[in-house]
Specification:
It is built from 10 helices and 20 strands. The chain has about 375 residues and is α/β, with parallel strands linked by helices.
Amino acid sequence: MKYVIIGNSTAAVGAIEGIRQIDRQGEIIAISSEPHHTYSRPLISYLLLGKTTEEKMKYRGDDFYDKNNVKLMNATVVEIKGKEVVLSGGERVAFDKLLVATGSSPVVPPFEAKEKFTFASLDDAKKLEKVLDKNKRVLIVGAGLIGLKCAEGILKRVAHITVIDLAPRILSSILDEDGAKLVQNHLEAQGIEFKLGTGFDKDANFDILVVAVGVRPNTDLLKDIAKIERGIVVNTKSETSAPDIYAAGDCTQSPQILPNAYMQGECAGVNMAGGEKVFDKSIPMNAIGFFGLHIITAGSYVGEVYSEGDVQSGNYKRLFYSDNKLNGYILIGNVEKAGIYTSLIRERTALDSIDFALVCEKPGLMAFKREVRKEKLG
């Protein structure tokens, strides 16, 4: 069996490890347009901050490809034709099973600037690092996760940072109004300036422009081959609508987060190799921190609300529930035991089967019935 994987990030690693759970002999070729060992993209801001190194950013050890008998090719796939992928140099690589794990690309509006950057990859971070200077002012367009992590990473290396966004609050896709205000106050205390509810102005006072307005799934390779909506459509086995072609990670319609990408990739790998695996517990989730303030969110914010903390306290908890299920949560500051809440959402646990009042106040296994504790503890 010959497996070809387009991509070399989280979903691709999951697929390689999934394949090798079932098939130790089949040929695996991973094709990546980036010339790097697999690395963790969320760490690029910590590289600029000086909290990590390229070596420590590696998502798997140096022996990963050899250990799993993977041939890694640094090339760009331009087309899928039948049971072959076509590379930019004209070379063709045949496959029996194909995984498309092409990720996503930054949306780049046509803003005018002398020095303009995105912040989505290791190469992006390296390009930006070359122009950082204590005398330069930076304008970041986008007050989402990427824009704010960039701000954290470069704050001490430039004269000033202004973050603008059309939305009336920061992190508008993952935080409610009060939660966003708490985080904004924390960031402003570090020296970051915000201008919200406003668009890009080329006459603003800045030297470096960073565009972080969002990303779009890389779906072009499967155009006219498989079903595509907001991303590549896959079933619970990570199969596309095209025979023998699978997809996983940010190029699909699943929520674009690292744990989902790995689990979806692993699911694809197992099924590509003839095993049986289902991934049907994908939920939106984010775990992030800014200057020591930790934030974890998951699920959807609908239903009744359990509240603890406020904008001033530095600790903030909101649990959203309805129809005997936990739908979502926001935790800022104290994020210990967040996994309990995540598990309740993923497993769709009936709240009347646990001591939900205790879980709200003090999440822990003691809130679960004895048989559930035994199961969770193995």
